[in-house]
Every structure is written in C-alpha cells, then in structure tokens.
Amino acid sequence: MARQEDRNSETGGVDELVTQLRRLRARSGLTLTALGERTNYSKSSWGRYLSGRTLPPYQAVLAFCRVVEADQERVLALWEAAHRERARRASHCSERSEEDADGDAVSESERVPVAGESSVGATGRDGRVRVPLGVVLGSALLGLGLGCLLGARVVRSHV
Prior knowledge:
Layout: H1 2-28, H2 32-39, H3 43-51, H4 58-68, H5 72-97, E1 122-123, E2 129-130, H6 133-158
Antiparallel strand pairs: 1-2
Helix pairs in contact: 1-5, 2-3, 4-5
Keywords: Membrane, Transmembrane, Transmembrane helix
GO molecular function, one term: DNA binding
Region (Disordered): 85-123
C-alpha cells in the first residue's frame, strides 16, 4: 500500500497533466489527426503525449490550449509540475547511477551520462541536445579540409 502511495506521489504531476489533456481533447471532439493538423505536431506525437509516454513540449501545450480553447494558465501550471517531477526523477536516477553495484562511488570519468545528459551542449525543454551552430559548421569544414589535403597527397604520390 505504501509503495502505491509513493508511486502516486512520484507520478502525480504527469498523471494530472495527461488526464486534463485527455478531458480537454474529449470535450473539444477533436481526433488525434485533427489535433495534429491544427497544432503542427504529428498525430503520433499527440498519441505519445496523451498516453503519458512522453511529456509534451511547452510549445505543444500552448498550441493545444489555443486549439481546444482551454485555460492556458491552469494547463501550463500542470505542465510545469509534470516537468519538475520528471526532472526530479531524472536527477534521482542520475544520483543512483553514480554508485556501482557494490555501493562504491564511481569517478566522474567512469560515469556514463544518463538520458537527458550530454557532455556536449545543453538540453532543451524537449530533451534534445542543443549544439551551437558554430561547432557543427566548424566540424564540417574541418572534415572537408582534411579530406581535401589527404586527397591532394594521394594524387601527388601517384604522379
């Protein structure tokens, strides 16, 4: 019984958000396809959001509220609570992963990043890693430059 109560307190924010989003969609009478067309998020994305498998991005919730004519403040407050809950759970999981099976502390160099973490760039609200454009373009140019140099060497060695 206590474990069920713990689980409910851990998932309360996400469950409340999902329940509210489902109610609002049902009240609007929109299908997932229609919701996808009107919000610019795919039908499959809305399926994941409304099942609770994935937390919808902030912008998706804004678009949803606009389409179903819901109270944005209330729904966004639920989204923020769900977002904090997921962050707290991810933080709790990363703290646990820093100890190995014997309970010994794992050094920072041995630690493997958990979902949502990255050693390069920062993560956005949707959990994707944000890498600066300069890093991407610089890497591409460096690769092209090295390829040209190596190609020129190969050509010169065969002449």
